Amino acid sequence: MNVLVVGGGGREHAIVWKLSQSPKVDKIYCAPGNAGIALDAECVNLKAEDVEGLCAFAKDYQIDLAVIGPEVPLAMGIVDEMEAAGIRTFGPNKKCSQLEASKAFTKHFLEKHDIPTARYKEFTDKQELLDAVGIFGYPMVLKADGLAAGKGVVIAETEEDAKKAIEEMMGDRVFGNAGDKVVVEEFLTGVEASMLCFVDENTIAPMESAQDYKRIFDEDKGPNTGGMGTYSPSLVFDDALQEQIREQILEPTLKGFQADDLDFKGVLFIGLMISKDGPKVIEFNNRFGDPEAQSVLARLDSDIVDIFMAVTENKLADAEIKWSDKKAVCVVLASGGYPGSYEKGKEITGLEKVDEDVIVFHAGTANEHICDANSCRSAVVTSSGRVLGVTAMGDTHDQAREKAFDNVKRISFEGMQYRNDIGLIRSDLI
Ligand code: AMP
Ligand code: GLY
């Protein structure tokens, strides 16, 4: 069969890598892809947001299955458009994509179906919000309602910071339309963890867990990023907690989808706060996490095509989903300056020195011709903030971690930065 993967980051490389192991797959296309994806798939020069172009491509190239990686095309309704064009597509439709594209939509849903989450109130008027500053005390959690590339949440420690954030969101409109509505939440404390689930209209099937590291620096210091690394399985989830999550969150979520006619088919990514009162939902995303996908899919033993097909046919309950007992650690190598401004086009060296059983998922890389006075050669260069995800497996977390970092040290590019504590088990976080 012919498969099209939409997106061009580390998550999409992990999806392409897993698809390439399936005997059912003849040809993989990826739009737009990157330099690493190009080794496993044919990259197509179309942006992930070019819904019309992607639908036309899928028809012209007889795509049997399209898999959508990022949230923006999902929110634009790419799944509805693909299906209207007769293309089988893995991912939620536009209506269900509101679960990530609107924080207020998700809060309504959670409250209506009695799923544990932080108390909240939504505002569309700046003055009303300014008058309500500190409504749930401090820190004050302020969230731009719409998609803001992971940057739309402000945790304001003081009244002054909160007023500044309100002014930026609703006055200066730094998040554009995404900040026309602002959700204010009670601040939750506890340990954060993410749970990814395959979902169709009848079944919600949690994947193996993964722990993300959101801050840029070791020991969770510095600003938030898209994610600087993951390890899987997460040690936060023991059997009792898994059972509590199933009963209080997963089952009511599936029942809620059914009651509200949300025919969700794809991946539901649940951001959780494990508080002293039990697990609470912080957010829903409607796609694989990045870099959660890198360490979770590295441990998937079953054929991912069978799972994707089963979800699109509402037969997830019958699909075989088997996981390796091995532990995985993924260390993200990022550009100097990220998550602030950074330079692109830095040559990456040492990729050929990486062990064969270590997977280097490419996130922001491109192929470029580099010429000096005498000659030209082809090189892999950086093209984004997060550049590579070095993923290693081991019988224990420590083995996986050691192997990952041993290989990280063989790769270099100017300004390269990474966290040294990915997969280092901190007892205060369990
Ligand atoms: P979100 O995009 O909603 O996941 O929020 C981004 C990050 O902000 C989360 O990963 C948490 O670290 C933090 N956060 C969001 N909501 C809350 C909350 N109600 N209480 C405490 N921290 C939160
Ligand atoms: N790693 C967090 C995310 O994908 O949203």
Question: What's the CATH H-level superfamily name of the largest domain?
Answer: ATP-grasp fold, B domain
Count of strand segments: 22
Envelope shape: globular
The amount of helix comes to: 25-40%
The hetero compounds bound to this protein are: adenosine monophosphate, glycine
- Tally of separate domains: 4
At CATH's second level, what is the architecture of the largest domain? 2-Layer Sandwich
C-alpha-based Rg, rounded: 21 Å
Strand content: 25-35%
Low-confidence stretches: none
Strand arrangement in the largest pleated sheet: 3-2-1-4-5
Distance between the termini: 43 Å
CATH topology of the largest domain: D-amino Acid Aminotransferase, Chain A, domain 1
Look at the helices and sheets and give the structural class: alpha+beta
Mean pLDDT across all amino acids: 94
| Biggest sheet record | 5 strands, parallel
DSSP helical segment count: 12
CATH class of the largest domain: Alpha Beta
Structure write-up:
A hairpin with a 4-residue loop joins strand 20 (365-371) and strand 21 (376-382). The chain has 430 residues and is of the alpha+beta class. The chain starts with a strand and ends in a 22-residue tail after the last helix. The protein folds into four domains: 2-91, Rossmann fold; 121-185, 2-Layer Sandwich (Dna Ligase, domain 1); 188-318, D-amino Acid Aminotransferase, Chain A, domain 1 (2-Layer Sandwich); 327-429, Phosphoribosylglycinamide synthetase, C-terminal domain (Glycinamide Ribonucleotide Synthetase, Chain A, domain 4). The protein has helices at 10-19, 51-60, 71-76, 78-84, 94-101, 103-112, 126-131, 159-171, 239-259, 292-297, 304-312, 397-408; strands at residues 2-7, 27-32, 42-43, 65-68, 89-90, 120-123, 140-144, 153-156, 182-185, 191-199, 204-206, 211-212, 215-217, 221-224, 229-232, 266-275, 278-285, 327-334, 359-362, 365-371, 376-382, 386-394. It is globular and about 65 Å long. The protein is built from twelve helices and 22 strands. The strands form six sheets. Strands 3-2-1-4-5 form a five-stranded parallel beta sheet, with helices on both faces. The protein has a five-stranded antiparallel beta sheet with strand order 12-15-18-22-19. The structure holds adenosine monophosphate and glycine. The site of glycine (GLY) has 7 residues, from loops.
